[in-house]
């Protein structure tokens, strides 16, 4: 439920101040997002990129024919992980 909140934004995104958290005297100013939020069109992609980099750092590799399949040989075991990101 909160995976998308961990995605890093590559572009600048501004939103209205959340209701109840407005800065007095500056109600017309916007807030710059530092992380993705649910509902942003960038959220699924930014989360995918974050988890992709994490898996690569842990020794997983993408298969050339299926970019959502990650494989890692761990001693005598073969670990296969399918990653599917959806905004539903």
Automatic annotation (TrEMBL):
UniProt-listed Pfam families: RVT_2 (PF07727)
Domain of life from the UniProt record: Eukaryota
Molecular function per GO: RNA-directed DNA polymerase activity
Matching InterPro entries: RVT_2 (IPR013103)
Reverse transcriptase Ty1/copia-type domain location: 1-88
This protein's name: Reverse transcriptase
Keyword tags: Nucleotidyltransferase, RNA-directed DNA polymerase, Transferase
């Amino acid at each position: 439920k909160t995976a998308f909140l961990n995605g890093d934004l590559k572009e600048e995104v501004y939103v209205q101040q959340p209701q109840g958290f407005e800065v007095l005297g500056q109600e017309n100013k916007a807030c710059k997002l530092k992380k993705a939020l649910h509902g942003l069109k960038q959220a699924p992609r930014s989360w995918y990129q974050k988890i992709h980099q994490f898996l690569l750092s842990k020794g997983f590799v993408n298969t050339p024919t299926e970019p959502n399949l990650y494989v890692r040989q761990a001693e005598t075991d073969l670990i296969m992980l399918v990653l599917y990101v959806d905004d539903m």
